[in-house]
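Render this sequence as a predicted structure.
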Amino acid sequence: MNGLEEGYDFYNGLEAEIYPLAETGWIEVVSMVDDEELRLFHPAPRRLQHGEAACVAIARHRNRSFLTVDKLARKTDREWGITVSGTLGVLVQRVKRGLVTVEAGDELLREMIDRGYRSPHASLQRFLESA
């Protein structure tokens, strides 16, 4: 079942947002295509949504990183040895890759916080200094 079928209406039109990122190689859209991925999908915690469980299986099988804000998915990733990151990590990577300036990244973060995103940090600077 896909996200729209599960009632996640914010997925509507997502392809238009993802496509430019996929073109630059910054993000890759994939599906489970391997028997091993399907095998790994089944032992994922039942409380995970289907999409998160599929992403965890793909990331583990293909030795990829996984971006998520879902706490259970992040816990599962760590337990399975998958590199995981969330929203702040995405913003930091955009700055490191020169896609946005630090100031623009901080502005995006401020806008997200203003719209209800709960962040433990108000600036990306700390993460960029430790890199």
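Summary. The radius of gyration is 16 Å. The mean pLDDT is 80.
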